[in-house]
Amino acid sequence: MEAMVSRFRRIGIAGCIAGLLVVAVPQNVPARAAPATQGDPAVGPHARQDAEHASVPLALAPAHGSITPRAQVKAAPSAVAGPSTPSVAASNKLFREVFGFAPYWQLSRNASWNYSLLSTVAYFGLTANNDGTFNTSDSGWTGWNSQALTDTFNRAHAAGDRDVVVIKAFSNATINGIVSSSTARQTLITNTINAIAQRGLDGVNIDFEGSTSSS
């Protein structure tokens, strides 16, 4: 009887080991193909949107008010900021940069935007020429000089957000003309500084998007 029990015990152990080996043997799983690499689009997203709205007439009243200073808020306890440094947007408990664009074709809707969800509001935008001057005949310039933009900046400042202006160029020739000429670069720098001071802003965002061939 003991011999039979011992035999069954050995058979059971052997069966368990065999089962474990079956489980442990890796199965041949076909490898997944690597995702196809996507190249840069022929036209950048902001350039495409700008082109779609460039010819839309704007019914915006000229600016008649001034920009109020940004509300200073104390840093939240858990924010990654120094003891005397305001948080990015501590008034609404934001601990990361949340960048929102205010394009010229949407300025009339500025009263409906929730500025507490943002830390920075960027006006889109002023168009740079290849000599460093601004295009003063396009819709971006109209929006820049509108009361709707003044209201946008004031609402953002009241929420503790930063206000910046986007300097944009979407033509390869224009971008090349600016970056290749020290005179054009300095002209653009000077004009940008003056624009920031004129509107009482907190900074600038440079958006140069050249085009590329799909081939």
Any guess at the CATH architecture of the domain at 97-208?
Answer: Alpha-Beta Barrel
What structural class do you assign from the helix and strand content? alpha/beta
Mean pLDDT: 83
Instruction: Give the name of the CATH superfamily of the domain at 97-208.
Output: Glycosidases
Q: What global shape is seen?
A: globular
Low-confidence stretches: 1-5, 16-25, 79-90
Return Rg in Å.
Answer: 30 Å
Strand content: 5-15%
The number of helical runs is 6
Overall strand count: 4
Largest sheet: 4 strands, parallel
Q: Termini distance?
A: 83 Å
| CATH class membership of the domain at 97-208 | Alpha Beta
The strand order across the widest sheet is: 1-2-3-4
Provide the helix percentage. Answer: 25-40%
Query: What is the H/E order?
Result: HHEEHHEHHE
Verbal overview:
This protein has 215 residues and is α/β, with parallel strands linked by helices. The chain has a domain of 112 residues: Glycosidases (TIM Barrel, Alpha-Beta Barrel). The chain contains six helices and four strands; from the N terminus they run H-H-E-E-H-H-E-H-H-E. The N terminus is likely disordered.
